Amino acid sequence: MGCMEGHAFGCQYYPPCPEPDRTLVQAKHCDPDFLTILLQDQIGALQVLHEGHWIEIPPPADGVTVTMQLITNDKLKSFEHRVLANRIGPRVSVARIFSAAHFNPTGSTAP
After folding, report:
1. HEC states along 44-92?
2. Torsion over CA: 16, 52, 30, 58 (sign)
3. 11-50 pLDDT tens trace
4. Which of 26, 58, 102, 104 could form a disulfide with 83 if both were Cys (CB 3.0 to 4.6 A apart)?
5. Are the beta carbons of 92 and 20 closer than 8 angstroms?
6. Burial class (CB in 10 A: 0-12, 13-18, 19+), 82
7. pTM higher than 0.85, yes or no?
8. What is the dihedral of CA 26, 28, 29, 30, to 10 degrees?
9. How far from 64 is each of 12, 73, 92, CA to CA, in Å?
């Protein structure tokens, strides 16, 4: 199917922040990828926007956070989310990203 053609592996390291309320690690955004698998440490800092309010998503104790969009025909959409700075740390997260920008079911890759 060719879905492994557009993939990336990202590791984020966030040192402790002395003024977390004045710092935003990642601004509000939606992942454009068709599948993202996120493994976080137990510190956490991921928030999602739900009905106009930011809600903290605690890291699963024995699991991963998954978002998907293209493969569900937009029935399951990537949520708007952000990552906050934290006094506690360092904090580490690892993401496996499968990108729709490079995915084409015909087997060719996008330009």
Report:
1. CCEEEEECCEEEECCCCCCCCEEEECHHHCCCCCCCCEEEECCCCCCEE
2. positive
3. 888 899 999 888 877 788 877 677 778 888 888 788 889 9
4. 26
5. no
6. middle
7. no
8. 120
9. 15, 22, 13
